[in-house]
Amino acid sequence: MKRILTVAAVFVCLFQTIAYCQAGNDVAGNAVSKLKTLLTDHIIEKAYLHFDKPYYAAGDTVYFKAYVTMGERHEVSTISGILHVDLLGKNDVLMQSINLQLTNGTCYGDFALPFNLQKGNYRIRAYTQWMRNDGQGYFFDHFISVGSLSGIAKNSSTANAAPPVLQFFPEGGNLVNNVKSRLAFKAMGPDGLGVGVKGVVIDNDKTEIVKFASSHLGMGTFEMIPEDGKTYKAKLTFADGSQSTVDLPAIAPKGIVLAVNINDPDKISIEIRANRNYYKENLNKDLSLVIYSGGAVRTVKTKLDNAVLGVDLPKSSFHTGILQVTLFSETGEPLSERLTFIQNQDLLNLSVNADNTAYKAAEKVHISLNAKTSDNQPSAGSFSVAVIDENKVPADENTETTILSDILLTSDLKGYVEQPNYYFATVTSQTRSDLDVLMLTQGYRRFVWKQLLNDNPVAIAYQPEKYFDIAGNFKTKNGEPLVGKRVELLSVDGGPVLKQVTDALGNFNFPNLVYLDDTKFILKTETDKGRNQAQLNLKKAEPDPLIAGRDSADSKYNEKADMLAYLSGNQKEGGELAVNGSGKSIMLKNVIVNESKTYKSSNLGGSGHADQVINGEDIKNGSTLAQALNGVARGVTFVGDVPVLANSGGTSFGAGTVDAHTGTTMSSGISQASMLVVVDGVSMQAGSGINNINPGSVATVEILKGANASIYGMEGGQGVIVITTKQMGSNDIVSTEMSPGIFSIVPKGFYKAREFYSPQYENIKDASQRSDQRTTIFWKPNLVTDAFGNAAFSFFNGIGKGNYRVVIEGIDGKGNLGRYSYKYKVE
């Protein structure tokens, strides 16, 4: 019979005085004390990005709002003032990197995608320097799908791929003889996605023990009681008809199992189950439970005076989020652990009122928002709003990454979660059950108890960034420091003149500066007249974190069923914006600079591996890039603006056309494949032209042939033209000596987000004269509710009819999260 434990512990908050279960309870008290130290001395930051739509097309602008939180209650961060956001391309090439200024834990920005960008999945990651102390575990790292009408890629065949696999995860960590245990399982196909599976467990006598079947995305659970002397296998049948047999995990001859049941919507039921051998050996020894969630902890102490012990806790004692239950022996050894997820009604309550339930095309829409906390108090917070035409951009709400799913769940899980918002969109007993299985299979803990209890603190290698510093030192040409020299810093755009004096090593530092990208400064120092001139050495910024590869299911590009229709409308949208407003532009991306070489290169083989290098200064005055390079790039001719290697006799092909799908040029009966165009490390589609790049923005152009082009594989078989723009991927400061002691410097500053283009229609007649192919109808990243929790916004519908979808996400100053999604009809 199960003995019900009395909860003698006091519910405490880790940021208040810790209350212990009983006097002398060193195990629970020590664990809680160490946990408190970790959470106060090493507060975590998390980043989340809300995008304007779920997927994009080449030529789109990707708009996003960033939310950075701190601590276990997800309050808006006051730790960092700078958020770094990177756009990564094929093979994790850094395409663009921007710095955004955080204000009350939020900021917003954008990335413009080139019109000739290859289709595929692209990564966007966001992080602060402080996050780097935890590796990349709390970086926001998300794939966006980008489609294109030209050269739509085919998914790689899985005909010869590996068969599906299945893993078992015993609850609490281990299977123990003669103890009822719950096993979770997950079946995955070769693409990393869950696959349906059913099976039967048999013992070594081929006796059937239990049947099981997956219930959600290849995941499920079953219960069994392992017996002494038995071994077990599972005979599996996957959804594709393939079959397999796998061994169950090893079974411990003695031990203890921790089981957690969350099926009751009001309480958490915890059981401690010991088998006979363990029970006899540890009779009446102390056991301690530490139950932790979101900065709050309960501790429960008991004696092992029964083989089955149980305790119930009200769910209302905990905030929505991951709950971690750990069982300790009386010597402080973690015996068993279980992670689950608590869902309470403690999120922001967002309500929306629109002036109509249905609208006409191009009609103005007025929407008001009210935000309240779970205890019905008005909430002043920061929100972002996206409105999309769902006929053009169909969205599967279950698969979306949202502020709730990311901050509360997936940022603390390991592995790819296929449908993160499924567990939050509509909460039911079934979604709760499926979420619990996810926690059993992919649960991840922030800390490891053994490491924590052994006093192994997390190393603090990176300090928070608030603002920018411009620092360095001055030396003579002979390498001697310029000591005690006055240094002045001023912006060419005006503002105060900052002054300092160099120290004994010639160092200077202008801290806590705020400036935008491309801001030009003048840096001046005194020099001895007629003697050695000053040499400036600027302090380099912290190097960018290494880009960890992600060979996971979400890295694989899958053509959306409605992508082609979306892309067709997207082309028309580009033309509309070109006439009426700037929502799209050619992205001049940042690159990684190889400082050991003498010129700037984004060549995959590195600088110094080209048949010809053309300096951007030599072509900057060309009317178009193709015109500027014509006659300068040796052995290269242009069909329109598409580069083609001339034949061995040097014959020019002259005017011609290019097949957009194959990249083959056709002129005067002669066919030849076009060169591969690489812009800042990113390979463009076959047959891409180069006139969408301003000659004045080019740093270098490299012509690669033969052996030098071979690094690009078959794509480079007809030669490669590598174009590197003047923008830089790192935070290094570009400097130029203007005259002795006077330097012009251009540091990398804060990115200024572009304004979302939204037409203002006077009437329907005005609208009918435009094509208005917008897919994102409205984007507002800076919606703020007042002290009463109210805010309002308005916009004009597009001319497309059907369902429009409104998504609002945000956070208030106390860390309360909210999301609201609804649809309205345009007739």
Question: In whole angstroms, how far apart are the ends?
Answer: 65 Å
> Which strand order do you get reading across the main beta sheet?
2-24-23-26-27
- Taken as a percent bin, the fraction of beta residues is 35-45%
**Which geometry do the CA atoms define?**
globular
Which range best describes the helical content: under 10%, 10-25%, 25-40%, 40-55%, 55-70% or over 70%? 10-25%
Mind summarizing the main beta sheet?
5 strands, antiparallel
Number of helices: 10
Pick out the low-confidence regions: 8-24, 577-597, 648-671
Secondary-structure class: mainly beta
Gyration radius (Cα, Å) is 31 Å
The averaged pLDDT comes out at: 83
- Strand tally is 53
What does this entry look like structurally?
With 827 residues, this protein is mainly β. The protein is built from ten helices and 53 strands. It has a five-stranded antiparallel beta sheet with strand order 2-24-23-26-27. Strand 41 and strand 42 form a beta hairpin. About 7% of the residues have low confidence.
